[in-house]
Amino acid sequence: MLSSQSSASTAADSLTISVNDAIQRLSAKHPQQALAAATREVAEAARADARSARANRLLPAANVSFGTQRLAQNQFAAIARRAGLTPVPIEPADPFTQVFAAPNIRTASLSASLRPFDGGVADARVSASTHGVRAARLVEVQIRAMLEVAVIQHYTDVQVQQRLLAVADSALAQARRALSITRQAFTAGRAAEFEVWRAEAAAAAQRPVRIEAERLAQVAELALRQLLDTPTGVTLRLTSPLEHWSDSVATDNEPVERPFALDVRRESRVAVQERTERAREASDLWKASWRVLLPVVDVNVNHQRFAYPLRGTNWSGPYFQNTSVGVLVSLPLDLTGATASRIDAAKAAERVAQAQRREAERGHDLEAAEIVLALNASRELWRAAIVGARSAEHAYRIAVTRYEVGRSSLLELQDARLAWQQAMAARALGARDRTIAEARATRFTQLPLSNSSP
Protein backbone atom coordinates (compact mmCIF):
# COMPACT_ATOMS: atom_id res chain seq x y z
CA MET A 1 0.00 0.00 0.00
CA LEU A 2 1.25 3.48 -0.77
CA SER A 3 2.35 5.62 2.15
CA SER A 4 1.77 9.30 2.74
CA GLN A 5 4.93 11.39 3.17
CA SER A 6 3.40 14.82 3.43
CA SER A 7 0.08 16.62 3.68
CA ALA A 8 -1.40 18.37 0.69
CA SER A 9 -0.29 21.97 0.39
CA THR A 10 -1.48 24.41 -2.22
CA ALA A 11 0.78 27.11 -3.60
CA ALA A 12 0.14 29.69 -6.26
CA ASP A 13 1.42 27.47 -9.07
CA SER A 14 1.78 23.95 -7.61
CA LEU A 15 -0.11 21.36 -5.59
CA THR A 16 1.85 18.85 -3.54
CA ILE A 17 -0.27 15.84 -2.77
CA SER A 18 0.20 12.34 -1.40
CA VAL A 19 -1.95 9.35 -2.24
CA ASN A 20 -3.82 9.61 1.05
CA ASP A 21 -4.38 13.32 0.42
CA ALA A 22 -5.72 12.42 -3.03
CA ILE A 23 -8.20 10.01 -1.46
CA GLN A 24 -9.31 12.68 1.00
CA ARG A 25 -9.79 15.15 -1.87
CA LEU A 26 -12.53 12.97 -3.31
CA SER A 27 -15.33 15.46 -3.16
CA ALA A 28 -18.86 14.60 -2.17
CA LYS A 29 -19.80 16.50 -5.32
CA HIS A 30 -18.23 13.82 -7.49
CA PRO A 31 -20.99 12.79 -9.93
CA GLN A 32 -21.10 9.16 -8.83
CA GLN A 33 -21.03 10.01 -5.13
CA ALA A 34 -23.61 12.76 -5.58
CA LEU A 35 -25.90 10.38 -7.49
CA ALA A 36 -25.57 7.73 -4.78
CA ALA A 37 -26.32 10.30 -2.06
CA ALA A 38 -29.37 11.56 -3.97
CA THR A 39 -30.64 8.00 -4.41
CA ARG A 40 -30.25 7.39 -0.69
CA GLU A 41 -32.17 10.59 0.12
CA VAL A 42 -35.00 9.51 -2.18
CA ALA A 43 -35.13 6.14 -0.42
CA GLU A 44 -35.22 7.84 2.98
CA ALA A 45 -38.07 10.09 1.82
CA ALA A 46 -39.99 7.04 0.61
CA ARG A 47 -39.50 5.37 3.99
CA ALA A 48 -40.73 8.50 5.78
CA ASP A 49 -43.86 8.51 3.60
CA ALA A 50 -44.50 4.83 4.31
CA ARG A 51 -44.11 5.34 8.04
CA SER A 52 -46.40 8.38 7.94
CA ALA A 53 -49.06 6.39 6.08
CA ARG A 54 -48.91 3.63 8.67
CA ALA A 55 -49.12 6.12 11.55
CA ASN A 56 -52.10 7.82 9.94
CA ARG A 57 -53.86 4.48 9.72
CA LEU A 58 -53.39 3.77 13.42
CA LEU A 59 -54.17 7.29 14.65
CA PRO A 60 -57.80 8.47 14.51
CA ALA A 61 -58.60 10.92 11.77
CA ALA A 62 -60.83 13.56 13.45
CA ASN A 63 -63.03 16.16 11.85
CA VAL A 64 -65.05 19.00 13.48
CA SER A 65 -67.72 20.90 11.59
CA PHE A 66 -70.36 23.57 12.26
CA GLY A 67 -73.24 24.44 9.99
CA THR A 68 -76.53 26.29 9.61
CA GLN A 69 -79.27 26.14 7.02
CA ARG A 70 -82.74 27.60 6.37
CA LEU A 71 -85.38 25.68 4.54
CA ALA A 72 -87.19 27.66 1.90
CA GLN A 73 -89.84 24.93 1.59
CA ASN A 74 -90.47 22.22 4.12
CA GLN A 75 -92.59 19.17 3.35
CA PHE A 76 -93.22 18.51 7.03
CA ALA A 77 -94.62 22.05 7.52
CA ALA A 78 -97.04 21.44 4.65
CA ILE A 79 -98.16 18.16 6.22
CA ALA A 80 -98.74 19.94 9.56
CA ARG A 81 -100.94 22.58 7.90
CA ARG A 82 -103.06 19.95 6.24
CA ALA A 83 -103.46 18.21 9.60
CA GLY A 84 -104.62 21.45 11.19
CA LEU A 85 -101.45 21.90 13.22
CA THR A 86 -99.37 24.98 13.57
CA PRO A 87 -96.27 24.32 11.44
CA VAL A 88 -94.03 26.78 13.32
CA PRO A 89 -95.39 27.18 16.86
CA ILE A 90 -94.61 30.24 18.86
CA GLU A 91 -93.63 28.07 21.77
CA PRO A 92 -92.02 24.65 21.35
CA ALA A 93 -95.03 22.81 22.70
CA ASP A 94 -94.72 20.00 20.19
CA PRO A 95 -91.07 18.88 19.86
CA PHE A 96 -91.72 16.74 16.81
CA THR A 97 -93.31 19.60 14.99
CA GLN A 98 -90.40 21.79 16.02
CA VAL A 99 -87.88 19.31 14.64
CA PHE A 100 -89.57 18.48 11.39
CA ALA A 101 -91.18 21.78 10.59
CA ALA A 102 -88.50 24.16 11.85
CA PRO A 103 -87.19 26.46 9.10
CA ASN A 104 -83.76 26.85 10.76
CA ILE A 105 -81.30 24.08 11.61
CA ARG A 106 -77.96 24.42 13.46
CA THR A 107 -75.52 21.49 13.50
CA ALA A 108 -72.23 20.79 15.31
CA SER A 109 -70.50 17.47 14.64
CA LEU A 110 -67.34 15.63 15.67
CA SER A 111 -66.33 12.56 13.65
CA ALA A 112 -63.36 10.22 13.97
CA SER A 113 -62.27 7.18 11.99
CA LEU A 114 -59.41 4.72 12.08
CA ARG A 115 -58.41 1.54 10.29
CA PRO A 116 -57.09 -0.99 12.83
CA PHE A 117 -56.47 -3.61 10.15
CA ASP A 118 -55.55 -3.03 6.51
CA GLY A 119 -54.41 -6.51 5.56
CA GLY A 120 -50.77 -5.74 6.42
CA VAL A 121 -50.22 -3.46 3.43
CA ALA A 122 -48.77 -0.56 5.44
CA ASP A 123 -46.37 -2.78 7.39
CA ALA A 124 -45.12 -4.41 4.18
CA ARG A 125 -44.51 -1.04 2.56
CA VAL A 126 -42.60 0.24 5.59
CA SER A 127 -40.46 -2.90 5.62
CA ALA A 128 -39.78 -2.59 1.88
CA SER A 129 -38.77 1.06 2.20
CA THR A 130 -36.46 0.22 5.10
CA HIS A 131 -34.66 -2.38 3.01
CA GLY A 132 -34.46 0.16 0.20
CA VAL A 133 -32.71 2.67 2.48
CA ARG A 134 -30.22 0.04 3.63
CA ALA A 135 -29.47 -0.94 0.04
CA ALA A 136 -28.94 2.71 -0.94
CA ARG A 137 -26.49 3.21 1.91
CA LEU A 138 -24.58 0.09 0.89
CA VAL A 139 -24.35 1.49 -2.65
CA GLU A 140 -22.71 4.62 -1.23
CA VAL A 141 -20.09 2.44 0.49
CA GLN A 142 -19.35 0.65 -2.79
CA ILE A 143 -19.07 3.89 -4.76
CA ARG A 144 -16.63 5.34 -2.23
CA ALA A 145 -14.41 2.23 -2.26
CA MET A 146 -14.48 2.10 -6.06
CA LEU A 147 -13.43 5.75 -6.33
CA GLU A 148 -10.62 5.26 -3.80
CA VAL A 149 -9.21 2.41 -5.89
CA ALA A 150 -9.57 4.58 -8.98
CA VAL A 151 -7.60 7.38 -7.27
CA ILE A 152 -4.78 4.99 -6.39
CA GLN A 153 -4.78 3.57 -9.91
CA HIS A 154 -4.63 6.99 -11.58
CA TYR A 155 -2.05 8.20 -9.05
CA THR A 156 0.28 5.31 -9.81
CA ASP A 157 -0.45 5.54 -13.55
CA VAL A 158 0.88 9.10 -13.52
CA GLN A 159 4.05 7.95 -11.78
CA VAL A 160 4.55 5.02 -14.14
CA GLN A 161 3.97 7.12 -17.25
CA GLN A 162 6.39 9.72 -15.96
CA ARG A 163 8.95 6.97 -15.45
CA LEU A 164 8.37 5.65 -18.96
CA LEU A 165 8.69 9.18 -20.34
CA ALA A 166 12.01 9.57 -18.53
CA VAL A 167 13.17 6.29 -20.06
CA ALA A 168 12.11 7.45 -23.52
CA ASP A 169 13.90 10.79 -23.04
CA SER A 170 17.05 9.01 -21.93
CA ALA A 171 16.88 6.53 -24.80
CA LEU A 172 16.42 9.33 -27.36
CA ALA A 173 19.27 11.38 -25.89
CA GLN A 174 21.49 8.30 -25.83
CA ALA A 175 20.67 7.44 -29.44
CA ARG A 176 21.47 11.00 -30.54
CA ARG A 177 24.72 10.96 -28.61
CA ALA A 178 25.67 7.64 -30.19
CA LEU A 179 24.86 9.07 -33.62
CA SER A 180 27.13 12.08 -32.96
CA ILE A 181 30.00 9.87 -31.79
CA THR A 182 29.56 7.53 -34.78
CA ARG A 183 29.68 10.44 -37.20
CA GLN A 184 32.88 11.71 -35.60
CA ALA A 185 34.35 8.23 -35.85
CA PHE A 186 33.35 7.98 -39.52
CA THR A 187 34.97 11.35 -40.24
CA ALA A 188 38.15 10.17 -38.54
CA GLY A 189 38.07 6.92 -40.51
CA ARG A 190 37.41 4.70 -37.48
CA ALA A 191 33.85 3.64 -38.46
CA ALA A 192 32.13 2.44 -41.59
CA GLU A 193 29.37 4.35 -43.30
CA PHE A 194 26.77 1.65 -42.56
CA GLU A 195 27.37 2.25 -38.83
CA VAL A 196 26.32 5.87 -39.34
CA TRP A 197 23.15 4.73 -41.10
CA ARG A 198 22.42 2.28 -38.33
CA ALA A 199 22.89 4.98 -35.68
CA GLU A 200 20.62 7.35 -37.63
CA ALA A 201 17.95 4.65 -37.85
CA ALA A 202 18.22 3.98 -34.12
CA ALA A 203 17.84 7.68 -33.29
CA ALA A 204 14.89 8.05 -35.66
CA ALA A 205 13.18 5.02 -34.11
CA GLN A 206 13.36 6.51 -30.59
CA ARG A 207 11.59 9.77 -31.49
CA PRO A 208 8.05 8.37 -32.01
CA VAL A 209 8.51 6.27 -28.86
CA ARG A 210 9.26 9.43 -26.93
CA ILE A 211 6.27 11.30 -28.44
CA GLU A 212 3.91 8.46 -27.53
CA ALA A 213 5.33 8.28 -23.98
CA GLU A 214 4.73 12.01 -23.55
CA ARG A 215 1.15 11.67 -24.76
CA LEU A 216 0.41 8.83 -22.36
CA ALA A 217 1.93 10.78 -19.47
CA GLN A 218 -0.26 13.79 -20.23
CA VAL A 219 -3.39 11.64 -20.54
CA ALA A 220 -2.67 9.94 -17.19
CA GLU A 221 -2.20 13.30 -15.45
CA LEU A 222 -5.40 14.70 -16.97
CA ALA A 223 -7.34 11.66 -15.74
CA LEU A 224 -6.04 12.18 -12.20
CA ARG A 225 -6.82 15.90 -12.31
CA GLN A 226 -10.36 15.21 -13.46
CA LEU A 227 -10.93 12.67 -10.70
CA LEU A 228 -9.61 15.05 -8.03
CA ASP A 229 -11.16 18.16 -9.62
CA THR A 230 -7.88 20.09 -9.66
CA PRO A 231 -7.25 23.06 -11.99
CA THR A 232 -5.17 22.36 -15.09
CA GLY A 233 -2.98 25.44 -14.58
CA VAL A 234 -1.52 24.13 -11.31
CA THR A 235 1.55 21.89 -11.34
CA LEU A 236 0.80 18.57 -9.69
CA ARG A 237 3.54 17.17 -7.45
CA LEU A 238 3.07 13.58 -6.28
CA THR A 239 4.94 12.78 -3.06
CA SER A 240 3.98 9.18 -2.33
CA PRO A 241 6.70 6.98 -3.87
CA LEU A 242 5.71 4.24 -6.23
CA GLU A 243 8.27 2.09 -4.45
CA HIS A 244 10.19 2.40 -1.20
CA TRP A 245 13.53 1.85 -2.89
CA SER A 246 15.72 4.09 -5.04
CA ASP A 247 16.32 3.62 -8.74
CA SER A 248 19.55 1.79 -7.95
CA VAL A 249 18.69 -1.80 -7.01
CA ALA A 250 22.25 -3.09 -6.73
CA THR A 251 21.47 -4.58 -3.33
CA ASP A 252 20.60 -7.95 -1.93
CA ASN A 253 17.87 -6.63 0.36
CA GLU A 254 14.49 -8.15 -0.39
CA PRO A 255 11.34 -6.00 -0.11
CA VAL A 256 9.28 -6.47 2.99
CA GLU A 257 5.56 -6.91 2.35
CA ARG A 258 2.89 -6.68 4.97
CA PRO A 259 0.51 -9.63 5.16
CA PHE A 260 -3.15 -9.35 4.27
CA ALA A 261 -5.97 -10.95 6.20
CA LEU A 262 -8.64 -11.10 3.52
CA ASP A 263 -12.23 -11.60 4.61
CA VAL A 264 -13.84 -13.59 1.80
CA ARG A 265 -17.08 -14.50 3.55
CA ARG A 266 -20.28 -13.85 1.65
CA GLU A 267 -21.95 -12.08 4.53
CA SER A 268 -19.04 -9.62 4.76
CA ARG A 269 -19.27 -8.48 1.14
CA VAL A 270 -21.17 -5.21 0.83
CA ALA A 271 -22.29 -6.03 -2.72
CA VAL A 272 -23.88 -9.28 -1.54
CA GLN A 273 -25.53 -7.44 1.36
CA GLU A 274 -26.94 -4.87 -1.05
CA ARG A 275 -28.39 -7.55 -3.33
CA THR A 276 -29.89 -9.26 -0.29
CA GLU A 277 -31.55 -6.01 0.79
CA ARG A 278 -32.87 -5.50 -2.74
CA ALA A 279 -34.31 -9.01 -2.71
CA ARG A 280 -36.00 -8.38 0.63
CA GLU A 281 -37.35 -5.07 -0.63
CA ALA A 282 -38.84 -6.77 -3.69
CA SER A 283 -40.33 -9.51 -1.51
CA ASP A 284 -42.02 -6.94 0.74
CA LEU A 285 -43.34 -5.03 -2.25
CA TRP A 286 -44.84 -8.25 -3.56
CA LYS A 287 -46.49 -8.82 -0.18
CA ALA A 288 -47.91 -5.31 -0.23
CA SER A 289 -49.28 -5.87 -3.74
CA TRP A 290 -51.32 -9.00 -2.94
CA ARG A 291 -52.37 -7.92 0.55
CA VAL A 292 -54.56 -5.21 -0.95
CA LEU A 293 -56.98 -8.05 -1.71
CA LEU A 294 -57.44 -8.85 1.99
CA PRO A 295 -60.42 -7.42 3.88
CA VAL A 296 -59.94 -4.17 5.79
CA VAL A 297 -61.62 -3.02 8.99
CA ASP A 298 -62.71 0.58 9.56
CA VAL A 299 -64.11 2.01 12.80
CA ASN A 300 -66.12 5.24 12.57
CA VAL A 301 -67.44 7.37 15.45
CA ASN A 302 -69.76 10.32 14.79
CA HIS A 303 -71.21 12.67 17.44
CA GLN A 304 -73.66 15.40 16.37
CA ARG A 305 -75.71 18.10 18.10
CA PHE A 306 -78.77 19.59 16.37
CA ALA A 307 -80.68 22.77 17.26
CA TYR A 308 -83.91 24.02 15.68
CA PRO A 309 -84.36 27.70 16.59
CA LEU A 310 -87.71 29.35 15.85
CA ARG A 311 -86.05 32.48 14.55
CA GLY A 312 -82.98 32.76 12.34
CA THR A 313 -81.00 34.83 14.83
CA ASN A 314 -81.72 32.61 17.79
CA TRP A 315 -78.79 30.26 18.45
CA SER A 316 -80.18 28.92 21.67
CA GLY A 317 -81.43 25.39 22.11
CA PRO A 318 -82.77 23.10 22.74
CA TYR A 319 -79.99 20.92 21.26
CA PHE A 320 -80.46 17.23 20.51
CA GLN A 321 -77.55 14.77 20.49
CA ASN A 322 -76.92 11.99 18.01
CA THR A 323 -73.95 9.60 18.48
CA SER A 324 -73.16 6.64 16.23
CA VAL A 325 -70.40 4.02 16.28
CA GLY A 326 -69.85 1.86 13.24
CA VAL A 327 -67.54 -1.00 12.31
CA LEU A 328 -67.14 -1.62 8.58
CA VAL A 329 -65.49 -4.68 7.07
CA SER A 330 -64.86 -4.35 3.35
CA LEU A 331 -63.35 -6.64 0.78
CA PRO A 332 -61.91 -4.87 -2.30
CA LEU A 333 -62.98 -6.31 -5.64
CA ASP A 334 -61.17 -5.52 -8.88
CA LEU A 335 -63.07 -6.79 -11.91
CA THR A 336 -60.69 -5.10 -14.39
CA GLY A 337 -57.70 -7.32 -13.54
CA ALA A 338 -55.39 -4.39 -12.83
CA THR A 339 -54.62 -5.61 -9.31
CA ALA A 340 -53.79 -9.08 -10.58
CA SER A 341 -51.43 -7.58 -13.13
CA ARG A 342 -49.69 -5.54 -10.45
CA ILE A 343 -49.31 -8.66 -8.31
CA ASP A 344 -47.78 -10.60 -11.21
CA ALA A 345 -45.38 -7.76 -11.97
CA ALA A 346 -44.31 -7.53 -8.32
CA LYS A 347 -43.78 -11.29 -8.19
CA ALA A 348 -41.66 -11.16 -11.34
CA ALA A 349 -39.58 -8.35 -9.86
CA GLU A 350 -39.14 -10.42 -6.69
CA ARG A 351 -37.90 -13.40 -8.73
CA VAL A 352 -35.44 -11.16 -10.59
CA ALA A 353 -34.10 -9.71 -7.33
CA GLN A 354 -33.65 -13.19 -5.88
CA ALA A 355 -31.81 -14.31 -9.01
CA GLN A 356 -29.55 -11.26 -8.81
CA ARG A 357 -28.81 -12.06 -5.17
CA ARG A 358 -27.80 -15.63 -6.05
CA GLU A 359 -25.74 -14.35 -8.97
CA ALA A 360 -24.01 -11.89 -6.62
CA GLU A 361 -23.12 -14.73 -4.25
CA ARG A 362 -21.63 -16.80 -7.06
CA GLY A 363 -19.79 -13.77 -8.43
CA HIS A 364 -18.39 -13.06 -4.98
CA ASP A 365 -17.06 -16.60 -4.63
CA LEU A 366 -15.25 -16.27 -7.96
CA GLU A 367 -13.85 -12.82 -7.17
CA ALA A 368 -12.72 -13.95 -3.73
CA ALA A 369 -10.52 -16.56 -5.37
CA GLU A 370 -9.38 -14.15 -8.08
CA ILE A 371 -8.40 -11.38 -5.64
CA VAL A 372 -6.06 -13.72 -3.78
CA LEU A 373 -4.53 -15.01 -7.02
CA ALA A 374 -4.14 -11.48 -8.39
CA LEU A 375 -2.48 -10.25 -5.21
CA ASN A 376 -0.02 -13.14 -5.08
CA ALA A 377 0.71 -12.91 -8.81
CA SER A 378 1.33 -9.16 -8.70
CA ARG A 379 3.76 -9.58 -5.83
CA GLU A 380 5.62 -12.40 -7.56
CA LEU A 381 5.85 -10.42 -10.81
CA TRP A 382 7.09 -7.40 -8.91
CA ARG A 383 9.81 -9.48 -7.23
CA ALA A 384 10.80 -10.88 -10.62
CA ALA A 385 10.97 -7.34 -12.02
CA ILE A 386 13.26 -6.32 -9.15
CA VAL A 387 15.57 -9.23 -9.90
CA GLY A 388 15.53 -8.37 -13.60
CA ALA A 389 16.32 -4.71 -12.90
CA ARG A 390 19.14 -5.71 -10.57
CA SER A 391 20.66 -7.99 -13.21
CA ALA A 392 20.29 -5.37 -15.92
CA GLU A 393 22.03 -2.80 -13.72
CA HIS A 394 24.93 -5.16 -13.07
CA ALA A 395 25.20 -5.87 -16.80
CA TYR A 396 25.27 -2.14 -17.56
CA ARG A 397 28.05 -1.54 -14.99
CA ILE A 398 30.09 -4.28 -16.60
CA ALA A 399 29.42 -2.86 -20.06
CA VAL A 400 30.68 0.53 -18.90
CA THR A 401 33.91 -1.04 -17.65
CA ARG A 402 34.38 -3.03 -20.85
CA TYR A 403 33.81 0.08 -22.97
CA GLU A 404 36.28 2.13 -20.95
CA VAL A 405 39.05 -0.47 -21.47
CA GLY A 406 38.21 -0.81 -25.17
CA ARG A 407 36.83 -4.36 -25.02
CA SER A 408 33.31 -3.47 -26.22
CA SER A 409 31.79 -1.09 -28.69
CA LEU A 410 29.62 1.95 -28.10
CA LEU A 411 26.68 0.01 -29.55
CA GLU A 412 27.03 -2.68 -26.90
CA LEU A 413 27.19 -0.03 -24.19
CA GLN A 414 24.09 1.66 -25.61
CA ASP A 415 22.19 -1.64 -25.71
CA ALA A 416 23.15 -2.42 -22.12
CA ARG A 417 22.00 0.96 -20.89
CA LEU A 418 18.72 0.72 -22.78
CA ALA A 419 18.11 -2.76 -21.36
CA TRP A 420 18.69 -1.41 -17.85
CA GLN A 421 16.26 1.46 -18.38
CA GLN A 422 13.63 -0.87 -19.78
CA ALA A 423 14.09 -3.18 -16.80
CA MET A 424 13.55 -0.22 -14.47
CA ALA A 425 10.39 0.65 -16.37
CA ALA A 426 9.19 -2.95 -16.05
CA ARG A 427 9.92 -2.75 -12.34
CA ALA A 428 7.82 0.42 -12.08
CA LEU A 429 4.96 -1.28 -13.92
CA GLY A 430 5.24 -4.23 -11.53
CA ALA A 431 5.13 -1.86 -8.56
CA ARG A 432 2.04 -0.16 -10.01
CA ASP A 433 0.24 -3.48 -10.49
CA ARG A 434 1.18 -4.61 -6.97
CA THR A 435 -0.05 -1.36 -5.47
CA ILE A 436 -3.41 -1.59 -7.26
CA ALA A 437 -3.80 -5.24 -6.29
CA GLU A 438 -3.14 -4.39 -2.64
CA ALA A 439 -5.58 -1.47 -2.79
CA ARG A 440 -8.29 -3.76 -4.15
CA ALA A 441 -7.48 -6.41 -1.56
CA THR A 442 -7.77 -4.00 1.37
CA ARG A 443 -11.15 -2.77 0.06
CA PHE A 444 -12.40 -6.07 -1.25
CA THR A 445 -15.40 -6.28 1.08
CA GLN A 446 -16.56 -2.77 0.06
CA LEU A 447 -15.95 -2.98 -3.70
CA PRO A 448 -18.85 -3.64 -6.08
CA LEU A 449 -18.91 -6.81 -8.11
CA SER A 450 -16.68 -6.52 -11.14
CA ASN A 451 -19.41 -7.60 -13.56
CA SER A 452 -22.00 -5.12 -12.32
CA SER A 453 -22.21 -1.54 -11.15
CA PRO A 454 -23.94 -0.57 -7.87
Give an overview of the whole structure.
The two termini are 25 Å apart. Helices cover 60% and strands 13% of the residues. A 4-stranded antiparallel beta sheet has the order 3-4-6-7. Strands 1-2-5 form a 3-stranded mixed beta sheet. The protein has 2 domains: 9-59 and 118-295 and 331-442, Outer membrane efflux proteins (OEP) (Up-down Bundle), CATH 1.20.1600; 61-117 and 296-330, Outer membrane efflux proteins (OEP) (Single Sheet), CATH 2.20.200. It has helices at residues 19-24, 31-58, 75-82, 95-101, 121-187, 193-228, 270-291, 338-404, 410-442; strands spanning 9-10, 14-17, 61-70, 104-117, 235-238, 296-307, 319-330. A hairpin with a 3-residue loop joins strand 1 and strand 2 (14-17). It has 454 residues and is of the alpha+beta class. The chain has 9 helices and 7 strands. The model is unreliable at 1-11 and 245-254 (pLDDT under 50).
What's the helix and strand layout?
Elements: E1 9-10, E2 14-17, H1 19-24, H2 31-58, E3 61-70, H3 75-82, H4 95-101, E4 104-117, H5 121-187, H6 193-228, E5 235-238, H7 270-291, E6 296-307, E7 319-330, H8 338-404, H9 410-442
Helix pairs in contact: 2-5, 5-6, 5-7, 5-9, 7-8, 8-9
CATH superfamily of the largest domain: Outer membrane efflux proteins (OEP)
Give Rg in angstroms: 42 Å
- How many β-strand stretches? 7
| Strand line-up in the sheet with most strands | 3-4-6-7
- Strand composition percent: 5-15%
What is the number of domains?
Answer: 2
CATH fold annotation of the largest domain: Outer membrane efflux proteins (OEP)
SSE order, one letter for each helix or strand: EEHHEHHEHHEHEEHH
Mean pLDDT: 83
The CATH class of the largest domain: Mainly Alpha
N→C terminal distance? 25 Å
**Quaternary organisation:** single chain
Give the overall form: rod-shaped
Tally of alpha and pi helices: 9
Q: Helicity level, as a percent range?
A: 55-70%
**What CATH architecture of the largest domain would you give?**
Up-down Bundle
